Amino acid sequence: MAEPTHCGSDDIDDEGFCEDCGEEVQKVFSEHKAESQFDDFLQEAYGTIEVCGMTMDAGIVLKECDNTAYREAFNNWTDAEKIEVN
After folding, report:
1. Which of 30, 25, 26 shows the shortest CA–CA distance to 13?
2. CB burial of residue 70 (10 Å; 0-12, 13-18, 19+)
3. Which residues neighbour 36 within 8 Å (Cβ) at sequence distance 6 or greater?
4. Which of 18, 19, 28, 43 has its CA 20 to 30 A from that of 3?
C-alpha cells in the first residue's frame, strides 16, 4: 500500500486528493512494488498474447523483448499515476 506523504490520513478520493487536508497525495512505492503494480496494469490492459503457440502475458513479453520500451512505458505510467519510486 502507498504511504501517505501529506497529513497522514488514508482517506484519499478518486482524484488523488486527501479528503481531510485537501492536499494532492503522492504515492510512494519500492521499485519492486511499482513494477508489480505496472505489470498488473499491463495485464489488465493487454491481457495475454500468443507467440509460436505459447500464451504469455503481454507485459512480460514487452519487458523481455524490449526492456527500453518497457522502462519508458513504466516511467510514463508512474508519472500519470503520480507514483514516486524509491
Report:
1. 25
2. buried
3. none
4. 43
Q: Which residue has the cell 490520513?
A: 9
Residue 1 pLDDT class (50, 70, 90 cuts): very low
Q: Domains in the chain: how many in total? A: 1
CB 84 within 8 A of CB 27: yes
Q: Would you say residue 25 lies in a domain?
A: no
Find all residues with CB under 8 Å of 76, minimum gap 6, and list them.
none
C-alpha cell at 25: 497525495
Predicted confidence (pLDDT) at residue 5 exceeds the cutoff of 70: no
Rounded to two decimals, the pTM is 0.72
Residue 22 domain-assigned?
Answer: no
- Domain of residue 71, residue span: 31-81
Q: Any idea what DSSP says for residue 71?
A: H
Residue 38's pLDDT band (cuts 50, 70, 90):
very high
